[in-house]
Write a structure and sequence with these properties.
By secondary structure, the protein is an alpha/beta fold. The chain has ten helices and nine strands. It folds into two domains: 136 residues, no CATH class; 92 residues, VSR Endonuclease (Endonuclease, Chain A, 3-Layer(aba) Sandwich), CATH 3.40.960. The longest helix is centred in the last third of the chain and has 16 residues. The model has no long low-confidence stretch (mean pLDDT 94).
Length: 240
């Protein structure tokens, strides 16, 4: 990807800044629910006449010096500015996944609030305001974030994330937990289908059930393919 970025920048305006999903890639952010987009995304000055091409997407927006940093030899948007840009183009669950990762690795809530104050209106502002209070640095995968957004918009009470449970058979950590009701929700990504992980998951689930916990496990196919049923199952487990 860095070779492609360098090639595109050769014919871009000298003040072009790597931004949006390309900046997210450089910052190591995984964006779920997105179609493949191999274009290099660049932000240029508002009045620039440069146009997009098959290999580049052009965004026109003012940038302050404080919103630009150099990384891997490229000028790109800072994590907070990248977040504010992505708020304009991502769906809320995808934006929550990005926000969780940013809080875990690159910035804090105050940084993102400052980015929103700098650009308080326009495309993505309402989405950013809706997502930011839900964000949590403890989320461990983008699809966990997507599942959490699904439960949030359905009115499910906020769970404890990465909750540690001690049982007679050992200590376990749950993706989402409602300790007062002894309910656990787990998101099982592709790694959970591997032989050794699958066996450990079964033993873990048996230990938790034996300790009186209700354990619900969902896959990406559940979250994306039957979201209403996922919500209904969680609400039933919570007695709602």
């Amino acid at each position: 990807m860095t070779v492609r970025i360098a090639a595109v920048l050769l014919t871009a305006p000298s003040n072009a800044v790597v931004s949006h999903v390309t900046a997210a890639m450089i910052w190591g952010l995984a964006i779920p629910l997105q179609p493949d987009d191999s274009r290099v995304h660049l932000t240029v000055a508002t009045g620039s006449a440069v146009r997009g091409r098959d290999d580049r997407a052009i965004h026109r927006s003012p940038l302050t010096h404080a919103e630009i940093v150099e990384r891997l030899g490229f000028r790109l948007t800072t994590p907070p500015r990248t977040w504010r840009d992505l708020a304009a183009v991502l769906t809320p669950p995808a934006l929550l996944a990005v926000t969780d990762q940013l809080l875990a690795h690159w910035c804090d809530t105050a940084d993102l609030e400052a980015a929103l104050r700098l650009r308080p209106s326009g495309r993505g502002s309402a989405r950013a305001r809706a997502v930011l209070p839900v964000a949590d640095r403890r989320s461990e995968s983008p699809m966990e974030s997507v599942l959490r957004w699904l439960l949030h918009v359905a009115g499910v009470p906020t769970p404890e994330l990465q909750y540690v449970i001690r049982t007679a058979n050992g200590e376990f950590r749950a993706d989402f937990a409602w300790p007062e009701l002894k309910v656990i929700v787990e998101f099982d990504g592709a790694v959970h289908r591997e032989g050794g992980v699958f066996v450990r998951d079964l033993r873990r689930q048996n230990a938790l059930v034996a300790a009186g916990w209700t354990v619900l496990r969902f896959s990406g196919a559940d979250v994306l393919g039957r979201p209403d049923e996922v919500v209904a199952e969680v609400l039933r487990a919570l007695g709602r």
